[in-house]
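User
Here is a favour to ask of a fellow structure person. I am asking you to supply a protein in sequence and structure-token form. Please set it down just below, with no commentary around it:

Assistant
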Amino acid sequence: MNDRFRTRFAHNKYMVNVAIGFDASRCMKALASIETDLNQLASLLTEAQFHAPPRTGGWSVGYCIEHLVLTGEAFLQQWEIAVKEAAAKHASGNGCSSYGWWHRRLLRFLEPPYRLKTKATQPLVPCSRRPKEDTVRRFFTMHQEFAGKIASSRGLDVKRVKIQSPFASWLRYPLGFSFDLALAHERRHLWQAWQVRRQLMDQL
């Protein structure tokens, strides 16, 4: 196992590597795994099931994915700013960094299966009921740009270059860490979406 990771069980579909340092190639592989997982999930749901809320209340699968689109777009804005500023300031580096204990703790908190729920801030709360095909398409479009920003980070000082958090304006993250944070957040809500799907199947 690569010594830049620690593995732990996330849910009964796959193992999740909790990063202890940034690596662009690994992030690219994580993007692909998430896309595969989303494709599998969407293929198992009808349009009605995609929009059906769980019996215990909360977001539908569609809303879980829409939330990820909104969050991804918010991250993209901050990544665009950070990459441009880093290039202008010639903030070069080897594209790698190790995470401190607080950052590792935050990643572990986000990874599924989670016990503590958090409330999304208003700009990231899904409110539009979009068709399944449109929602999935928007997610993949966002992911293409996500991959582009990871590629743009190569050669930058991903520890010194910072971005503003889309979750809280008073928080700033190192650029490299922010990519892993976004990926962990996606896995968190995809796991949530799978739980909604399981509840729907139990009702049949």
Notes: Confidence is low (pLDDT under 50) at residues 1-12. The longest strand covers residues 5-11. The chain has one domain: 5-202. Strands lie at 5-11, 14-19, 21-22, 97-98, 162-164, 172-174.
